[in-house]
TrEMBL record:
It is a multi-pass membrane protein. Residues 1-20 are annotated as: Disordered. It is found in: Membrane. This is Bile acid:sodium symporter family protein. One of its GO terms (cellular component) is membrane. The keyword Ubl conjugation does not apply. Keywords: Membrane, Transmembrane, Transmembrane helix. The lineage of its organism: Bacteria, Bacillati, Actinomycetota, Actinomycetes, Kitasatosporales. The chain crosses the membrane at residues 27-49, 55-74, 86-108, 114-134, 141-162, 207-231, 237-260, 297-320. It comes from Streptomyces boluensis. InterPro entries: BilAc:Na_symport/Acr3, Bilac:Na_transpt, Na+/solute_symporter_sf. The keyword DNA-binding does not apply. It holds the Pfam family SBF. It comes from the Bacteria.
Length: 326
């Protein structure tokens, strides 16, 4: 999610301070470690998290509430200023990642539960860490924030029908119930957080620095619960799921960047497009998969939570280095 140092009319220049840069790097570095530890705990002690399954939607609500608290009206003004670029980012996100999920599921011959899980990850909105990674890559943070914000708001309208269209051949999909769940666990908490920020901005500003860490810990708990629920099947499916996730994320990053370049958006905006397409709200995907499919179907989302932050940080470092050389 965006931090105060990240948000603004950043066009890929060095507007962030050294302090903000170091804080962002710490967040992106520590988050995958937390998720890895949580996954290991879920695998080693599945019984300890067995009763937590019903808590996953509420945990996701906490993450989305924190995201709402970081938002300001500037995020929505950015959409009005650059509607073409934001629309391109939304189309690229909701076409490339769902399509890739379906293609990868078919190409690898994934079992129905895992195939539906991979496709559901692809149909989710942009990841909450994409703005920070765009900042580290010296990308267009304002565009990244706008695309992430609108993709999250549109998720109740877009994610369920896409999942029904692409994953319906593998498992029954109750799109209507999924719409209700996304409204309750994503849109309402985000709007509540935004409203609280508008009403008590000075108070919220004092705790903004803690919000990414609260979100990271909460997502880690979600991963632990998901992994614990499918611990018995992980040993046989882990390699296949990891391959699917790496392909999904890697191709998403590459095609997102290509979409920006082909559309003539320029390098900073293309970097933002790469992360807005390739990084997903895997916490939402895990929650929906657990509620509507099975814990095994949520496994791709749990693995994606770890991998897209690792790959995102590495790609961002590479892009930033190329930018400095240029």
């Amino acid at each position: 999610m965006p931090t105060p140092a990240d948000r603004g009319e950043d066009k890929g220049t060095d507007k962030g301070t050294d302090t903000g840069d170091r804080a962002a790097r710490r967040a992106v570095t520590v988050f995958p470690v937390l998720v890895l530890v949580a996954g290991a705990l879920g695998l080693a002690l599945p019984g300890a998290f067995a009763e937590w399954k019903t808590s996953v939607p509420y945990l996701l609500g906490i993450v989305m509430f924190c995201m709402g608290l970081t938002m300001t009206p500037l995020d929505f003004k950015g959409v009005a200023k650059r509607p073409w670029a934001v629309a391109l980012g939304l189309v690229a996100h909701y076409v490339i990642m769902p399509g890739l999920g379906w293609l990868i599921a078919h190409a690898l011959g994934l079992p129905p539960q895992l195939a539906a899980g991979v496709i559901l990850v692809g149909c989710a909105p942009s990841g909450t860490a994409s703005n920070v990674v765009t900042y580290l890559a010296r990308g267009d943070v304002a565009l990244s924030v706008s695309v992430a914000t609108v993709s999250t708001v549109l998720a109740p309208l877009v994610t369920p029908p896409l999942t029904l269209l692409l994953a319906g051949e593998y498992l029954p999909v109750d799109a209507g119930s999924m719409v209700t769940d996304i409204l309750k666990t994503v849109l309402l908490p985000v709007l509540a957080g935004l409203l609280l920020r508008l009403c008590a901005g000075r108070v919220i500003d004092r705790v903004l620095g803690a919000l990414p860490w609260l979100s990271a810990v909460t997502i880690s708990v979600i991963v632990a619960v998901v992994v614990a629920g499918s611990a018995s099947a992980i040993k046989s499916a882990a390699a296949l799921v990891l391959l699917a996730v790496v392909l999904h994320n890697g191709l998403g990053l590459a095609l997102g960047y290509a979409a920006g370049k082909v559309s003539g958006l320029g390098k900073p905006a293309s970097r933002a497009m790469a992360f807005e397409v390739g990084m997903q709200n895997s916490g939402l995907a895990a929650s929906l998969a657990t509620a509507h499919f099975s814990p095994l179907a949520a496994l791709p989302a749990a693995v994606f939570s770890v991998w897209h932050n690792v790959s995102g940080a590495l790609v961002a470092a590479w892009m930033a280095r190329r930018s400095r050389k240029a």
